Amino acid sequence: MQALYAPGARVVVRDCEWIVRRADPCDDGGYILTVDGLSELVSGKSAQFLTRLEEDADAIRVLDPAETRFEQDMSPGFEKSRLFIETQLRQITPADDRIHLGHHAAMDPVPYQLDPALQALKQNRQRILIADAVGLGKTLEAGILMTELMRRGKGKRILVLTLKSMMTQFQKELWNRFTIPLTRLDSQGLQRVRNNIPGNHNPFYYFDKSIISIDTLKQDNEYRRHLEQAYWDIIVIDEAHNVAERGSSSQRAKLAQLLAGRSDSLIMLSATPHDGKARSFASLMNMLDPTAISDPDDYAKEDFRDKGLVIRRFKKDIRDQVTQEFKERVVNDIYLDASSEEEAAYQELLQVPFTYRGEHSPSKNGQLVRVGLQKSIFSSPAAAQTSVEQRIKKLQARDEPTEDELLEGEYLQSLLLALRNVTPAHFNKYQQLLKLLKSADYGWKKTDTQDRLVIFSERIETLNWLQENLKSDMKLKDDAVELLHGGLSDVDQQKIVEEFGKTESKLRVLLCSDVASEGINLHYLSHRLVHFDLPWSLMVFQQRNGRVDRYGQTEIPIITYLINQSDNPTVKGDQRILEILKEKDEQAYKNIGDPATFMKVHDPEQEESLTAEAMATGTEANAFDEQYQPDDSNEGDDLLAMFLNPEATQPKPEQEVVAQTVERYSLFPSDFEFARQALEAINRERRQVSFTVNQERQTITLTPPDDLEYRFRFLPPEINADSGSMVLTADKQRFEDEIRRSRQDENAWPKLHYLWPQHPTIQWLQDKLLAQVARHSAPVLVLPDTDAVTNALQANESVFLVSGLIPNRKAHPVIWEWFAIRCHNNAVVDIQPAEAWLKELQLDNRLPNRGQPVNITPLEALRGSVIESAKAQMAKRQQEYASTSEPQLQQQLAELQALKDRQIAQLDKQLQGSAQAEHFKAARREERTGRIETVFNDYQAWVRDTLTIEPVPYIQIIAVFTRDSDQSNG
């Protein structure tokens, strides 16, 4: 019988003892064991072993619990045993669908933020699209789920893909809140990797956890090849709508499809997850679950509604839960009249005889050219001049321009002259902006480091013009005004966003193009946002406003729209259409949630096209308003609604969510106390760690010894302390204050570390404590006659603390229980859950250890009976599990078979309607059927391996308890 390799098992490999962290099935029929060293020679080291190779050399041995040696604990207060038992308790990985650790992250979680993790954990395979609206905290929701997966041993290797501008922000958020150390592979980080590792090494194996821009990956063929040969436990794709197939399969989409098959867990984040097209959204769903959709152009909700692939909420859905976390925004609409110079420019624009394909086109095509230039005029004269000059160059570039094109060129020159007359003094929208910024009522002060300003425009020319003029008119220094747009490098984009969030930065005004309307946090020191021009897309309204109106904003967001008004009937009508978009955005914000409900194309560019088309065809504003109304009758056909469980849209009541969280049982009152006592115990054995403790401030300051320093060598360089010492705090509020303070620092990373189970120092401590107990031994605690002891442990009794673990075929723990096995008169007399018995015992540091040696031979004689009793208990658990999992397995396999049959039937239907020759159709059927077979066979194997548990439990004797009055001195 093959040896059982389960997480938590102790194995001897090459005469060193290791603890198994994970065991992954290998192609050769054995396992790849990922282990951490316990014996002195390998302490602090990690390794991987191929079990088939080691077994063939007789160099691997799972330690037999029946051979466990007993050693009496003589330490004061049973310190050594308490720390050992606590460390073993902390090894237990949950196998249920509740939240065990994520709710203790360095944040104040709101109940709705736990819902995505709860929904994903109900799946065998955690794959989910978190599609919450802008500003609700999708990064935090992803962090909670990632923490739960890591707690379950399913998060050693993580890859995050995000936008260039968001890499640092995402990296810091996951480290600060969840202690998830992502190495940033931006252009500088990639160069550092190339310098530090051999050229033929895969950087994605060098760093277990990394974050990279998807655009960097798609442009770098070398790194794409590395991706194809790497595998992760978790992949996160932020702003996932960018990787959907839109018409043709883009490089981004192909890359995401590749990655979707390179991890067990896949988390996608997007507030705008589809463009309204069935095929586009199907591409995302098939990345999450390749068996979900048979025909990407025609699918029904019955196939996948219960799969839990999507969760989506809007601010209106969670308003009751977030009275403190969200401030109700204030909207200022500033209407202003166009100057006479602007009106003259509008008139010149309308007189231009625009051409289409060489001919004057007064109908829609020519008007679309006019509307394109009008869009730039609505932004600024500077943007309009650039657009007009580009149009003139385009006409002049013709080899033989037509008479109509020559005439258009002449009129464009007149328009150019009119635009040059719109100087800053005659550009009323700009003058109104200056008036706003200087007004006492608006309250913005350029000297206030806590009150920064965000101004949006879609045109870079407008941003450049604003930067130049604001500096002189507002008397702002060069470093007080910055531009953020997509033409900047990844490093520059990240640097500007970082600077904007630092109190000590001299940056006061951030001029943003719509590249900054996706994802980035601008709310730390800013709650005032100005739309210098109105977006032509409802979705852009939401994205822009979400930069300051989001979870964690401490001030009331003030959103200001500068709305220009013309006396020209055509221009006035077109401007009114933009006002209607603004009103619809407010309606979505207050009542509906999803702004895409109105225009129903779910894509900013397509929304802009519809807006432009309405202007080009002369659509009346009222007709435009009527045309784009939310239609409740179509709500059920919405692509997202098809994938949502009805209850997933509405957040659960707080009491119900709290019931889904678990507080881990511990022998210590807090992680801080555990860490403090562990460090003291390690130094009592031999002086190894230099540290100080501040009880009042709940901080531990330590100088990392070599083996801890070695672990940090593989973590992001930003988190290492320059001073050589590390300060950890368990005070969540103090750490929150440090996060805020760190934004003022030059490097903007907290100097404190959050002390909780996920921090590398805690994990290092646990490994040190495990190594302090001799190989394959368990401590014996000879307890004094206190009231708690006599209640828990009768005279002439002993209690064995025993762990029983059964993994599934993927080596993930499924059943992991601890038993208190009571023995009397050399026989097992009772078995009860260990946690209840330990609570009754009250094993704390106030329990005196008299240190009287006892004869442990009678205890050793009980080992066999105790282990057999534990195996019998685990067999019962195994039967209980099988009785529920087997029907579940068969149901899932049947559902997969039905989906597979449907896909093949759909394929046959498509081929029957094809006019291709029969031999072509036969080849297509064979190729496509082969792909379907592969996808479903892989998925069915995954389901079987997940739901099928190993037949033999891994039993470990953790500790033995007896009374000092029960044993004679030996």
List the helices and strands and how they pair.
Blueprint: E1 10-13, E2 16-25, E3 31-37, E4 46-50, H1 51-56, E5 60-62, E6 69-72, H2 79-91, H3 115-121, E7 127-130, H4 138-151, E8 158-162, H5 167-178, E9 183-184, H6 187-196, H7 203-206, E10 209-213, H8 214-219, H9 221-228, E11 232-237, H10 251-260, E12 263-269, H11 278-288, E13 310-311, H12 315-318, E14 330-337, H13 340-351, E15 355-356, E16 359-360, H14 364-379, H15 381-396, H16 403-420, H17 428-438, E17 452-456, H18 460-473, E18 481-484, H19 490-500, E19 509-512, E20 526-531, H20 538-545, E21 558-565, H21 569-592, H22 596-599, H23 604-616, H24 621-627, H25 639-643, H26 646-649, H27 654-658, H28 671-685, E22 690-694, E23 699-703, H29 706-712, E24 726-729, H30 732-742, E25 752-754, H31 760-772, E26 777-783, H32 787-792, E27 797-807, E28 813-824, E29 827-833, H33 834-841, H34 857-861, H35 863-912, H36 918-947, E30 954-963
Parallel strand pairs: 6-26, 7-12, 7-13, 8-10, 8-11, 9-10, 11-12, 14-21, 17-19, 17-20, 18-19, 20-21, 24-25, 26-30
Antiparallel strand pairs: 1-2, 1-5, 2-3, 3-4, 15-16, 22-23, 23-24, 27-28, 27-30, 28-29
